[in-house]
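Predict structure. Chain length: 210.
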Amino acid sequence: MENKEQLLLDSGKALPVMEEFYSIQGEGFHTGKAAYFIRIGGCDVGCHWCDVKESWNADLHPLVNVEGIVLRAKQYPAKAVVMTGGEPSLYNLKALCDGLIQHGIRIFLETSGAYPLNGEFDWICLSPKRNSPPQKSILEKADELKVIIEEEDDFDWAEENAGKVNDSCILFLQAEWRRHREMMPRMVDYVQAHPKWQISLQSHKYMRIP
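Prediction complete.
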């Protein structure tokens, strides 16, 4: 990467963007709401079941000026942006957040919590991963805890993180998509026995939208 590009990246004035699109939030607390999605490339968490592995290598995705991202986002009627990845917390997101806030756009972040955050967010959805556990500061700020359930001991991982978030954080269990038929009955039983949890569905996959 050239020095100029590195300076833009470090300052947060440009980010490696994999894709931008207007769609419907399919998971978690804001399921069913329209939003502009910004998928930022780059992730070293390495979940083997990740369904966007093409986002992992930031070098594959061009640096995009955040002013342009803001201009595109503000064109849509839903004044809401979902920042996802990849792992957005790898980057300085302050400039992008500031630009969106200036236009009255709410910002919803999806993160594993593996790195400290730079920027201001209206909602933080934390989806913690074992191989890169979340930062204490993000556990304390999370509005929503969404734990992926692939196997039985993921319930223990869910409880471990539930014990670290703030009291107002909303708790979700979400089946890993390739095993959702197997894990869903177990999740139903678990939520019935532990009603502090709710079930999150990947409804966008049922709707066949991005």
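Summary: Residues 180-193 form the longest helix (14 residues).
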